[in-house]
Amino acid sequence: MQAEHGCSITGWASYLPRTVVTNQDIMTLFDTSDEWIVERTGIRQRRAADGPFVNPKPSTSPLGGLGTTAQMAVEAGKAALEMAGLTGNDIDLLVLCTTTPDQMVPATSSPLADALSIKGGGMDLNAACAGFTYGLVSSAGFIGAGAERVLLIGSETLTRITNWSDRTNAFLFGDGAGAVVVEAAPEPALLGWDIGVDGSLQPLFYADYGGPGMAMRGQEVFRKAVRVTVDSATKSLEQAKLTPADVALFVPHQANIRIMDAVAERLGLSDERVASVIERTGNTSSASIPIALTEAANHGRLQEGDIVLFAGFGAGMTWASAVWRWGAGPPR
Ligand code: UT7
Predict the structure, then answer these.
(1) pLDDT at 96 over 70
(2) Does the beta carbon of 41 lie inside 6 Å of ligand 1?
(3) Which residue has its alpha carbon closest to ligand 1 atom 47?
(4) Are 254 and 292 a contacting pair, CB within 8 Å?
(5) Residues belonging to the active site
C-alpha cells in the first residue's frame, strides 16, 4: 500500500512545560544515581507538566495538576498553525495522539478543537509511543481521501501515570507536546510506511485504571523494541525503494539512547543523521518524535527533498515507521 497523493509538512512546533525534573530530583525518590540513569538511558532531565515536583508519594501525582495534555497541545498546535500561516478555521481534521487523555470522555481532542477553533473533525489516536507515526500515516491517508489540511499533535502528561515508587522505570518519562501541520501538496511525501501491533505482548508494558501507574518489563521491551523498529523501518524503506544510505534524517521515538543507537547502528545510520532530544526530555511517548523533528528542523537540519525516516514503538506492543520526503508546501 502506498499513498500516492501529495502532501507536505508546512508547520511544526513543540512545547515543553517549565518544570525541569533532574536526575538529582529523581534520586530523592528512591535508591538510584545520576550516573546509572545517564549510562542506561542517556536521560539527564525531563519536564513535568505545571506544578512543583515535590518528593512524590506512591500512587499520587507529584504535580500540582495544572498542566494538562490539552493545554500543552494548544501551545504546540497554535505555534505550528502560525508557522504554516493558518488558523484553526483552515483545518479539516485534528488528530491528537496521546496515551494520557485528560478525561475518559470526551476525547481530549474535543476541548483542544474548541481552544484552537478547529472547524473540521477531531479525534484522539492512542497507539502509545508509536502514536505520532500512526498519526502521520493517517494524516497522509486523510489527505489522499480529500482532506486539505490536518493538524497532527502528540501531547503527553506521562508524569501523571508514572509509578513514582518504581525505581525500575520512573526515571524514564516526561511531559511535552509537538505538532505538525500536514497539507495537500503537489508532490507525494509518504513514500513508504509500516504499522503493526502485537497484543500478546501487552503484559510487557501497561497501566491499569486505579493502579499504581506504568509497569514495565524493561529488558524484554528493550530487546523487542530494537527488533520491531529495525524490521519496520526496513519494510518502509523497501516499499519506498530506498536504502538507509538515502536517509538524511532519522527521527526515532525517544525512549532510551541505547535503543536509538542500537536501531541506528543496525540500519547503518551514523549519529549525525539521528535526531535526539532524549537527554533533555526523557520519553514523552507520542510527543517525542514531533519534539525531536521540531528541534532538527529549527536547527536547519532539513532541506527540501531530504528523506526523513520516522520510527516508533510502544506499549501494546505497537510499532510504526514512515519514509517521508521533506518538501515544499502548496502554492499560496
Ligand atoms: O516507550 C517504550 C517504553 N519503554 C522503553 O523503551 C524501555 C525499555 N527498557 C529500558 O530502557 C531498560 O530496560 C531500562 C532503562 C528500563 C533498564 O535498563 P537495563 O539495562 O535493562 O537494566 P536492568 O533492568 O537489567 O537492571 C540492571 C541492574 C539491576 O541490578 P542487578 O540485578 O544487576 O544487581 C537492577 O536492580 O540495575 C538495577 N536497577 C537500578 N539501579 C539503579 C534497576 N533500576 C535501577 C535504578 N537505579 N533506577
Answers:
(1) yes
(2) yes
(3) 32
(4) yes
(5) 129, 253, 283
